[in-house]
Amino acid sequence: MTRNEYLARLKSELENRKIADADDIVSEYEQHFAFKLADGYTEEEIAAKLGSAKSIAEQFGEFDKRPSGGRVLLKIALACAAFFEAVFYIIFSAFAIILGAASIALAATGLSLVFNFDISGLIPEMPYIGALLIGVCLLGLALLFFIAAFYCLAQVRQMIKASVRWHKNMTSSNALPPLPWSPRFNNKTRRGIRAVFTWSLIIFGVFFVLGYCVLAIKTGDLEFWHALNWFM
Q1: What is the DSSP string of 39-75?
Q2: Helix H segments across 61-127?
Q3: Which of 24, 58, 221, 224 lies at a CB distance of 3.0 to 4.6 Å from 215, suitable for a disulfide?
Q4: Domain parsing of the chain, residue ranges
Q5: CB 197 within 8 A of CB 137
Q6: How far apart, in whole angstroms, are the C-alpha atoms of residue 171 and residue 98?
Q7: Cα angle vertex 127, ends 121, 130, to 5°?
Q8: Sign of the dihedral through C-alpha 136, 138, 139, 141
Q9: Which residues contact residue 31 at a Cβ distance below 8 angstroms, ignoring those fewer than 6 apart?
Q10: How many Å apart are CA 26 and CA 222, to the nearest integer?
Q11: Contact 175, 169 (CB under 8 A)
Q12: 162-171 pLDDT, tens per residue?
């Protein structure tokens, strides 16, 4: 069964049972198809794994028949899980913010070296050609940190969405398809991220080697930072 056939049958079954928000439910399953298609599954495989549209519609027409005591224990367990999840998400978000701040600091330092200005006197002295090469190297590294921060934030956002869906499914008989725990990007965004990452890595590696070689030659010392008195 194709995606359109499955979704049309699901919508028909939901409407026959007069289920509220039938369009929203179908939209969620349409999104589920999109995620799984991006992972390489065929429409027929996805439909088969979901089960019949009739059985899904029947779930949305049932009431939660778990004993009230069981529901209370479940809600307590889910509340405890939510607490630890929240702590993890806060730590992960803080890590992503640190990466973003490091990206900004690296970019500022790289620009200072490239344009040969040092507002606060924190940039160590070196020949300009070496400063230029190291500056471009730092700009490449700043982009790498930015990509890492962007992906971490996207990961946290997707994990929160997936967790909320999981908690809702655990406390309701009207279970929607689970959301993926890792972020999904469209093909254009994915290609863009890959291209920026690749070129940033190349720029960082190439200009780091060039900067090191130039400064080592200029100072006549492989440990040029000592010759330039960087740590004095």
Answers
A1: TT--HHHHHHHH--HHHHHHHHTS---S-HHHHHHHH
A2: 68-114
A3: 224
A4: 1-62, 88-227
A5: no
A6: 36
A7: 100
A8: positive
A9: none
A10: 65
A11: yes
A12: 898 888 877 7
What are the residues whose beta carbons fall under 8 Å from the beta carbon of 180, sequence distance 6 or more?
35, 158, 162
Coil vs helix vs strand at 167: helix
Q: Which residue has the tokens 């079954």?
A: 13
Structure tokens, 91: 């730590």
For residues 99 and 149, the answer to whether their CB atoms sit within 8 Å is: yes
- Percent of the chain's residues with pLDDT above 90: 41
Count Cβ atoms within 10 A of the Cβ of residue 8 and give its class: 0-12 exposed, 13-18 middle, 19 or more buried. middle
pLDDT in tens, 2-52: 888 888 888 887 778 777 667 777 887 887 888 777 777 888 888 888 778
